[in-house]
């Protein structure tokens, strides 16, 4: 049952003056203008922030370009690189890892990790050893809390294998997200594949002046398709693992830190890689 007070309230027609109507129109226009102004200001702020981020990323890449991926650096350079990394990391602080962005192939541009620098140092000292491009390939497109990562190292032995791309060493690991930014890597396998022998070695195996015999062709094919796989895990031993902190991630740059003083890494997106 509806009360009498509520019923009479329903029957009272509100009085709206012409001046109130005009004032309402003006106020509505003012609110619209304020909303448009606020939206425009937000877009300007976002555009400026994006420009500043890209400028800082460019500055970071510019600083590291003459370091030979970290092999040739002074203490002052390493300090400057660290400061530039911190600035870029600040734009992405606190955000959770986006595995859809992480998925794909990343090319190493700089590192201070001792276990990687020793490869560069060996190549610089030894004339029979070359280190080409180094990649990290993440496979996690349809995953929610982890996936696979392949550390891919292109290397060569001059005169025996093609320069810089003579063979491929792949260290594969399964990773899991243990916090918003930390992933834990559990290494599973080391493999050697994609062996591309030099023209000089092919000439030794099958001289160009003679028709290639069935045996020489078999040897060439065996070398080129050779793939050695060594499991890191076994029932008798525990898998080697490592903690990795992804400090910055977007569609074309990945910054990482090996937890425990293992060094920093700077990657940029690579368009394609065949492992």
TrEMBL record:
It comes from Solanum pinnatisectum (tansyleaf nightshade). Keywords: Plastid, Transit peptide. Its main location: plastid. One of its GO terms (cellular component) is plastid. This is Plastid lipid-associated protein/fibrillin conserved domain-containing protein. It comes from the Eukaryota. Pfam families: PAP_fibrillin. PANTHER family: PLASTID-LIPID-ASSOCIATED PROTEIN 4, CHLOROPLASTIC-RELATED. Residues 56-267 form the Plastid lipid-associated protein/fibrillin conserved domain. Transmembrane segments: none annotated. It is found in: Plastid.
């Amino acid at each position: 049952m509806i009360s009498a007070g509520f019923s009479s309230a329903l029957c009272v027609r509100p009085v709206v003056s012409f001046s109130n109507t005009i004032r309402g129109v003006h106020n509505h226009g003012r609110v619209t203008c304020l909303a448009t102004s606020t939206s425009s200001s937000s877009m300007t702020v976002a555009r400026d922030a994006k420009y500043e981020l890209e400028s800082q990323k460019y500055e970071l890449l510019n600083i590291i370009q003459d370091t030979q991926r970290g092999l040739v650096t002074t203490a002052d350079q390493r300090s400057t690189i660290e400061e530039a990394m911190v600035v870029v990391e600040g734009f992405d602080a606190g955000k959770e890892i986006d595995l859809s962005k992480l998925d794909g192939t990343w090319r190493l541009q700089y590192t201070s990790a001792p276990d990687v620098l020793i490869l560069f140092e060996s190549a610089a000292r030894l004339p029979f050893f070359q280190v080409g491009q180094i990649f990290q390939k993440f496979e996690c497109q349809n995953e929610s809390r982890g996936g696979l990562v392949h550390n891919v190292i292109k290397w060569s032995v001059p005169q025996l294998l093609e320069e810089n791309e003579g063979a491929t060493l792949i260290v594969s690991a399964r990773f899991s997200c243990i916090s918003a930014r930390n992933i834990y890597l559990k290494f599973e396998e080391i493999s050697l594949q994609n062996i591309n022998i030099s023209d000089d070695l092919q000439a030794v195996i099958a001289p160009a002046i003679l028709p290639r015999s069935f045996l020489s062709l078999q040897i060439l094919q065996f070398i080129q398709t050779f793939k050695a796989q060594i499991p890191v895990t076994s029932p008798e031993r525990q898998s080697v693992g490592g903690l990795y902190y992804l400090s910055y991630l977007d569609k074309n740059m990945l910054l990482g830190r090996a937890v425990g003083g293992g060094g920093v890494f700077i990657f940029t997106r690579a368009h394609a890689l065949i492992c």
